[in-house]
Each structure stands twice: as structure tokens, then as C-alpha cells.
Write a structure and sequence with these properties.
Layout (H helix, E strand, L loop, with lengths): L1 E5 L3 H12 L3 E6 L2 H10 L3 E4 L5 H6 L7 E4 L4 H15 L3 E5 L23 E3 L1 H14 L5 E5 L4 E7 L11 H7 L5 E8 L2 E3 L12 E7 L3 H7 L9 E5 L3 H13 L4 E6 L2 H10 L4 E4 L5 H6 L7 E4 L4 H13 L4 E5 L6 H4 L6 E3 L1 H13 L4 E7 L4 E7 L20 E8 L2 E3 L12 E7 L3 H7 L8
Parallel strand pairs: 1-2, 1-4, 2-3, 4-5, 5-6, 12-13, 12-15, 13-14, 15-16, 16-17
Antiparallel strand pairs: 7-8, 8-11, 9-10, 9-11, 18-19, 19-22, 20-21, 20-22
Helix pairs in contact: 1-13, 5-8, 5-13
Length: 458
């Protein structure tokens, strides 16, 4: 696949890194020579210094032969114009744009991005995507990762095995025997900076991060089996009243009538602005690192502190301080990809990486085959993929035990005609089933091939 990426920031670099590693032909455009030099030096991609929406720059980057253009510069208008130019002059089939300003995304302007007006095939709104991820974490506080697939009927949760976890040192096959109707599959384990698909003879250890694919109605029971029965948060303090913080508070007001929400916002102007739009949320002006202000926000009685400022260091320190002051749990926004590796050691219960969320959303549209959903885990070390099985798929028509799935791939759930099936060795996948599976990075290409339309790939 030939892809042109406009923007070499964190998201653009992450997408280029992922696609280049999979042997795609990638060109990256950015107005910063420093960023382009850095991406040329570290990745097998072509870099071009220039304006991402200018026709001559797009032409140099090979837009006339591109299968896809991904516009993720810092400016919405540049992203939108780049897609328009790519469509009008270069006939690029698929155009993806990151759009942050919520004004463009209001329902009354839904025709703006139609093919007859501004032809953008996929709109990515990081604030909404990250906000929804935060809300899902609040609903299942025992999980450190929560992603939904198959019309929200299949949930992937990441769970940390603590010392009091009831299933530690239990072989996975015994887990199946103890809970035959659990409706969940242990698909991946992250242990000592290594992510792998476990065998039935493997046992779970303390501090393992376990990825479980479960039916939506069995998620809470699954968390309970792993020793996580924390109730849904109703007293929430949000550090940072930016776009994401405002969105989370607004959605909590709408969806959870019993929730008591307080926002700590450093900018007086922003604090006054969001106070006018939120009805039940209390706004406090000041720093999230001010212990007295946190106490004024009743942090000692809060279920969760959510740190959503633009500064990772502020987010981490405010989470640590909140825990010391008596807050039960915390959740931090972390942009720096190196921070998550030691976040748990600092006392961070859960974190959200906006870059990873955005990349996952874009990969859903990059993946070949009938791919309906993608979520990258552990900085791209693995992916959870939802794909539609076709008649030509090697998975169709025979029991899973007779299917020679490569190591590193685990089928976690099958969605058929509105019903979720938890697979075992006797399960037979049918054409048009939607399959949710876990794959380490080295196996993603094989997963794509399993769900391709053409026979030439088998």
C-alpha cells in the first residue's frame, strides 16, 4: 500500500513507524526540517519538507499514486484542505483527517464532509476518542484497558494480577474447568516487557497484565474472578478543563445523573468558559498540584482523580498526590510513550495514551481485508482486531482445533447474527461471522491475509 502522511508529529510518526514496519510505501510531509530529518534517520520512509496541503508538495510525495492520504498536522484546516487537494487533483481513493475543533463536528453540519462538499472518508477526533476511552475506564475501574468491538457486545479488558488475585498460579486450562460458562478468553499476557499469547498450560503470575476478550454481560464477573470488584466511580475530580476534560464532565452529566464531578483548571479564562457550559459540575480555578486546592475539591472522598492536563508530569504528580491524600483510584493522560513503562510503579492505576488511541482508530482503515475494528496494545506490540470472515477465509468451515493458526494469534470471540459466541476447539467459524482476535505485531499481516477477498493471498 502507498500512503502519504501529512504531519510528522507524534501521531504521524507513530503511523509511519507502524506502516513502514509492515513494508508499506510511506511518504511523510511536514513543514519542520527537524522532524523530517528525524523521521528519515529512524524509519524506512521518504520525507518531504513543505506544506501538507500544497499541490506541488503532495505531487513530490507521490500523491498521484497513493492509495491513502492521512492528514494529522496540528491544524484542522490544513488537514481538511490536504484531503480536498488529494481528492480533486490526485484522485486519492481514501482520505483520513484529524479534526479537533468540535464546531466542525456538530450534527447540524454533518454534510460538510460528504463527497460532494469536502470529500474526507474518515474523520478522527482525538478529544472524543480519548474522552470515550476515559469514560469506559470509569465504568470499569478494575480494568487498566477497555475497548469495545462487535457493536459494543464484545469487550477487551486489561487486568493486573495483584498478590490477592484468586487465579494467580492457576493453569489457564484449569481456569476454563473452574468457570466453564465464563464467556471470556485470556488472549494475551504482558510480563516483564514481553507481550505473548499464552498456552493452556501457562499460569498467571503476580504483576502480569492480562488481556481478556469477554462478552459484554460477563465483563464484571470476569473482573471479579481476577480480584477486581471496584464499583463504578460516582465522585470524580478532573485535573484539567481542556477539550477532553470538558467532554468527560459533559458526558458524565448526561449519562450518570448520580455522578458528582469537580474540575480543577489552571486558566481562569478557561475555567469561566467551561463553567458557562456545564450544569452540575463544580469548577475550581488553580493548579492540580496545589494540595490545598485538591483538599477543597474533597479529593480525600473522591472515587477517582482523572488527570487530563497537557503536561504529563503534572498528570503524574497530581495522581500521586491525590492517592496520598486518600483518593481511591487515579487515571492519567500520558503522551510520552516512555512514561507508561514505569507508571504502575509510581502508583498510577490506569492511563490513556492519546497517540495510541488515534493511531488505533486510523489503523482500522489502513488494514487490508474486511477489518471492522483495530486497537493497538503496548505501543504496537500487539493488536486486537475485529474482522468479517469471508467464504474464502481459511478459518471458515472447520473446527478451530483443526485450523492451523500460527503462534501469536488467539481467537477471542465470534459475533454471529447479534449473538456473541465464546470459542473453543469445536467452534466452527461461518462466512460473515465477525471474529475478534488478538495478534502480536509480527502476525498482523497474516491476520489481514486471512480476511482478504482474493484467493491469491492463500
Amino acid at each position: 500500500m502507498r500512503v502519504v502522511i501529512c504531519g510528522a508529529g507524534q501521531v504521524g510518526y507513530g503511523i509511519a513507524e507502524k506502516l513502514a514496519a509492515e513494508q508499506n510505501d510511506v511518504s511523510v510531509i511536514d513543514s519542520s526540517p527537524r522532524l523530517i530529518n528525524a523521521i528519515r534517520d529512524t524509519l524506512d520512509v521518504r520525507g518531504f519538507v513543505g506544506h501538507g496541503a500544497h499541490p506541488d508538495v503532495l505531487a513530490q510525495a507521490g500523491a498521484d499514486q497513493a492509495d491513502m492520504l492521512i492528514a494529522v498536522t496540528l491544524y484542522d484546516e490544513v488537514n481538511m484542505v490536504a484531503c480536498q487537494v488529494a481528492h480533486s487533483l490526485f484522485k486519492v481513493p481514501t482520505k483520513v483527517a484529524r479534526v479537533r475543533a468540535q464546531s466542525y463536528l456538530k450534527p447540524q453540519w454533518s454534510d460538510l464532509f460528504s463527497r460532494d462538499n469536502m470529500p474526507i472518508d474518515v474523520i478522527i477526533s482525538p478529544e472524543i476518542e480519548v474522552g470515550e476511552m476515559v469514560l469506559r475506564r470509569l465504568a470499569l475501574p478494575g480494568a487498566v484497558e477497555t475497548v469495545r468491538f462487535a457493536d459494543d457486545q464484545v469487550v477487551v479488558v486489561g487486568v493486573v494480577c495483584r498478590e490477592d488475585c484468586p487465579v494467580v498460579n492457576t493453569p489457564l486450562r484449569q481456569l476454563t474447568e473452574l468457570f466453564p460458562d465464563l464467556g471470556a478468553v485470556v488472549a494475551g499476557v504482558f510480563r516483564g516487557n514481553h507481550l505473548f499469547v499464552p498456552k493452556s498450560s501457562d499460569t498467571l503470575l503476580v504483576d502480569d497484565l492480562v488481556y481478556v476478550i469477554a462478552r459484554r454481560d460477563r465483563v464484571r464477573r470476569t473482573l471479579a474472578i481476577f480480584g477486581h470488584e471496584e464499583p463504578e466511580a460516582t465522585r470524580v475530580v478532573i485535573a484539567g478543563g481542556g477539550n477532553i476534560g470538558h467532554y468527560v464532565a459533559h458526558m458524565l452529566e448526561q449519562r450518570q445523573s448520580t455522578a458528582k464531578v469537580k474540575i480543577v483548571e489552571h486558566s481562569r479564562e478557561r475555567a469561566l468558559s467551561i463553567a458557562d457550559t456545564l450544569k452540575r459540575t463544580v469548577i475550581l480555578h488553580g493548579s492540580a498540584l496545589d494540595q490545598n486546592l485538591l483538599l477543597e475539591a474533597d479529593i480525600q472522598d473522591a472515587d477517582t482523580l482523572i488527570a487530563l492536563t497537557n503536561e504529563d508530569e503534572v498528570n503524574i504528580l497530581s495522581c500521586v498526590m491525590a492517592k496520598k491524600l486518600g483518593c481511591k483510584r487515579n487515571l492519567s493522560l500520558l503522551n510520552n510513550p516512555s512514561y507508561p513503562t514505569f507508571a504502575h510503579a509510581l502508583g498510577i492505576d490506569a492511563f490513556v495514551n492519546p497517540r495510541q488511541v488515534t493511531i488505533s482508530k486510523i489503523l482500522q482503515h489502513v488494514r487490508r481485508g474486511r477489518i471492522r475494528g483495530v486497537h493497538a496494545l503496548q505501543n504496537g506490540a500487539a493488536e486486537v482486531i475485529e474482522a468479517e470472515a469471508l467464504e474464502t477465509s481459511p478459518l471458515v468451515g472447520k473446527p478451530l482445533r483443526d485450523t492451523e493458526l500460527p503462534d501469536g494469534i488467539r481467537v477471542g470471540a465470534i459475533f454471529r447474527e447479534g449473538t456473541v459466541i465464546t470459542p473453543d476447539g469445536s467452534t466452527i467459524i461461518r462466512a460473515h461471522d465477525r471474529v475478534v482476535l488478538f495478534a502480536i505485531a509480527e502476525r498482523v499481516r497474516q491476520v489481514e491475509q486471512m480476511f482478504r477477498v482474493s484467493l491469491e493471498f492463500f
